[in-house]
Amino acid sequence: MVRFLHTSDWQLGMTRHFLIGSEAQERFTQDRIDVIGTLASVARSHDCAFVVVAGDVFDTNQPQRRTLERALDALGSFDVPVHLLPGNHDHQGPASVYRSDAFTRRCPPDVHVLGDDPMRPLPGVEVVGAPWYGRRPLEDLVTRRCRELTPDGTTRVVVGHGQVDAVVGDHDDPAAIRLAELDRAVVDSGVAYVALGDRHSALAVGDSGRVWYSGAPEATDHRDGGPGTALVVDLPDGMLDEPPTVDVVEVGRWTFHRLERSLDSDGDVDALFADLDAIEDRARAVVRVVVEGIVSLAQAAALDDGLTLRAEAFGALELPDRHRDLTIRPTDADVAALPLSGYAAVARDRLLEQASSSDADEAAVASDALALLTRLARQADA
Amino acid sequence: MRIHRVRLQDVRGIDACEVEFDPRGITVVAAPNESGKSTLVDAIRLVLNERRRARATAQEVKDLQPVGRQVGSVVEVELAVGDHHLVVRRRYNQQPEEVLRIVAPTSEQLTGDEAHDRLAEILREHVDVGLLDALWLQQGRDLDALALGQTSLSARLDAATSGGTTTAGSSGGDDLLSRVEEHHARWFTATGREKVELTRLDDRVAQLRVAADELRGRLAEVEAESVELAEVERTLPAIERELAERLGPSLESVREQRRSLETLEANRETLRARLEQATTALDAARDTLERRRAAAEALSALAERVATVEQGLQPADDERAELTERRRRAQEAAQSAEETLRSARRDAELAQWRVDLLEAREAHAGLEGRLARARALIEGAGQAQEQVDASLVDDEVLAALRDADASVRTLEARVDAGAPTVRLRARTALAGDVDGDAFELADGDTLERAVHEHLRLRVSGLDLEVLAGDTASSVRDQLARARRDLADRCGRAGVADLDEAERQIAQRRIHEQTLRQRDALLERELEGSSVGDLAEAVEASRARLDQLAARRPATSGATPAAVPDDTPGDTPDGSEPPSLAEARRIRDERAQAVDVADGAHQQASSELDVATDLIDAARERHDEERRELDGLRQTLERDREQLERERAARSDDDLASAFTEATRAHHDASSALREADARLVELDPERVDLAESAARNAYDAALEELARLRQRRTELTVRIATVGAEGLGERLTETAAELERAELDQRRERQRAAAARLLRDELHTAREEVHRAYRAPLRDRIVRMSSLLLGEDVAIELDDDLRIATRTSGGATLAWHQLSAGAREQLAILTALSAAQLAGDDGVPFILDDALGYTDPQRMATLGALLGRTEGAQVIVLTCTPERFRTTGARTVSLLPS
Questions:
Q1: If you count residue pairs, one on A and one on B, with CB atoms under 8 Å apart, how many are there?
Q2: Whether residue A143 has pLDDT greater than 70
Q3: For A61, which of B716, B729, B758 is closest by C-beta distance?
Q4: Residue A89 near residue A41 (C-beta atoms within 8 A)
Q5: Which DSSP string do the residues of B396-442 spell out, in sequence order?
Q6: Which residues of chain A have a CB within 8 Å of the CB of B54?
Q7: Do strands B462-467 and B454-459 pair parallel, antiparallel, or not at all (unpaired)?
Q8: How far apart are CA B28 and CA B875, in angstroms?
Q9: Which of A118, A340, B525, B649 holds its CA 20 to 30 A away from the CA of B79?
Q10: Could you report the predicted ipTM of this complex, rounded to two decimals?
């Protein structure tokens, strides 16, 4: 039995706009380096014989020096051979990070970049890479690589990167991996396992049980959800008919949450706050609040205040764009809350009118102005 | 709005009190100084401000509580608003409650929030809440401050609007508008321009965009270079292979061909040199042979020519002799012609002389004739002249005579006309005389006589004398004078009467005619000259004639007596001299003979010239031919010797065989070269050249490309490595994220700024509108009240803050600060009263605090008088000295602490 760790899409060097300007960015960056150490621990604890990283180790072929250094340090924590596959973000073109002096000089001895030649981490076992050599290959690299192989008793793990047509529903991309053809090629060529990267969440592709996306070790986007995963794969000895055993291991700490809510009452606003408060490890949670509905001035103010109050606690709290998503309709209670007289009352009434305008922009500015008026009038009372 | 009644219970220092107000007049509320007055006012305000319950602060409410007692304070106000009559009661602090009891138009009772809302609704419906609030603020201010205009209605409106505290001391400094302005100023300058807080976000977005674009551009470069490097690395080995396997061998093969071609060309060059030598040798042999033949031919031609020239010399001598003979004959002919010509000329001269002589004679005879005729004419004219000179009657005399005669006849006629007439008709035959003239008359005859001076008629038995009048007598005198004059004139002219004078004048005319005819004839003969001149001309003519006759030329010897000759007129032989016409004919004939002789002579002379020239030419030609012949003979001899010498050196046969040999050698060399050329053509040097050049170019180009690509590979590798170390990709990701964040910040900040701006603008707009709406009504109201209360017509202007800017009275316009304190006071009270009337459908109460008192009795009197005339307005005066308002006729109530 051969056991190895399948991971991908480390995307080192990535920056997220929603983290800009906060200490969370540094936490995020550090956690994404640290998770490599976690992967090394998982490999160790699961007794994995080697590790394959199925593409996009780096977010770009031109990472900053510090990113590269930290990545190489982290790679040094593995006890077993590690095979890196150049993906679309870090393809093996002439300008590849893997060809740079900075990488080659400090690359740990048991870390290998997969090229055209297969690697043999164990006797009778080959790791066959389908590396990217440019940003836009014009063919399905993975299937072609599989087709080049002939069954000869060797246990082969093919490492590839890219989107699978059936998964993304794109059948026009020439580089997309054709699932049907891949499945056939896997059978024809006696491939034991196809380790795929590119998709940031774990997924078994097709029915063979031999083709898997490992998912990224740390989530980076709301699409990913999280937490990040890696796969511990067991290949049965010489039993090609028997599918591999795949264990999905959670390794990431960051979570991404998208709270979509329809706000129509004070209760809805409170419920939203309750949901936010229920999120664990908020320092590593990125939350996007998307709201819609019709609210009063008071509710809008409560929403603003509540979100502003909580924002600091989260890794990132992406506030809703009130102008876009919410319709503010001042109520009698809102008016009562602004007991103004004289021309201030005239101005207030005009703003109320504008806030109900069909012109969304005008309405938005007017409701902002009303909220401001409310606040300033209240300050006067205080 | 009218306040009818207020009841207080346990409010501050007041245990219980109830005050009723005059709803349409002045109510003077007497209260101790600094005590209940403000309590009353504060309580009313607190109750009526219920619509702003939220703002009734705990402190205000707490202030109502009596000191040291935990009891609820009750305030009850009864008032009329529009057609509503209602009572509001509120209890504060302990067991608070609110009750609204509506008495009219329909009875109704409400409590709590409902009460509050209903009251607010009724007030809003009938009262300008903003203005009311503003007035409440002013209530209780002392008149001095009011008069100084320190707090404008506008400022109070602002304060009321902003929710500034309603206490009397509040200022507008921290009102809503200034807070809004403060907020707005975070993003905008006073003039509305965006501040750096706003624009720096734009700048940051722009900077980040530029940075991101630059990074993207550089990454695209790296990507392009990376693609190029991959291509270079793929291409390099292919070119190396191409060079080694194809281009190199191909070039070598072509070079081999080139070498054999060069050998062949060297061989051909040798053959070509040999042919050139053979050609030269052949040309030399041919030349020698031909020169020998030409020399022999030239020699025989020369000999022939010598013979020809020798034969041509004899005819030349014959020709010369013939020409000499011809010249001699021409000479003789010329001499003869010359003689003939000379003789003809002499004959012609003689004939001419004869013509001249005859013509001179004819002219002379003409002149003599004319002279004789002229003399005869002059002589004949003498008689006629004498007769003309003898006659005394000329035209002038005749005219005078005619005039005199006419006068006589005229006067006679007048005498006849002016004289009476005597007519005698005979009844019977009778006889008698008149002035002696006898007459006889038959019966019925009539005798008539004019009576000039007198008339005497005598018949039988009658002697009648008739006398004419004086007038007739004067005419008769004139007649007599005229007759005498006529007679005198005739006498002087030597004639008897006019008839004779007429006859003499006719005779004279005839003589004068004769004289004129003679003058004309004489003129013709004299031709403008005088008779003397003519006589001289005759003499001169005679002299010429004699001269001519003396100059007779000699006769020609050649033609003696060929024509009638001799001098005319005096020929010695007495023969008849020829006529002039004949002489002229002879002369013309002889002139022709001269012309003929002259022509013959000229012809003979030219014949002589021709003959002479021919002889000269023939002689010259002959000499030339001789000299030529001598030269030819010498040349012939020399050439012959030369040829013989050459033949002795090399015979003609020798030369011929040498030429044959040279011809053969040339033919051989030529054939050899042709063969070599044919071989070269077979190999095609041009093709070999082209092939070599092509192979060489291909090889060089490939080498160059190889070098270029290797160089490029190095360049690209270095560049990519260098740029790769900069971490562009990650920097782009970072920058893009920062940009996205900056755009979000920018959007949010701009939204906040837009809200602040909108709020500020709306507040300003509304404020200006409200103030504008107040200005005209307030001004009109002040003017009306001024007229009503003070009886003076004034015009006032309000400024933007609703303050009185100017007052115009009696034509004089004064600014506010120029007005007297009293005038300002009055106007301030009028303004406040006016505002109070504007504040509601039916006005609102005007509350005046007299706290500080008016010490000036005059001003007090004026104020009292003023307030006393506010018909229909509700005025509440709070004072501690109510007696001062007695003159107003107001209701006075007392508010005394318990």
A1: 190
A2: yes
A3: B729
A4: no
A5: HHHHHHHHHHHHHHHHHHHHHHHS-EEEEE-SS-EEEEETTEEEEE-
A6: 339, 381
A7: antiparallel
A8: 8
A9: A340
A10: 0.83
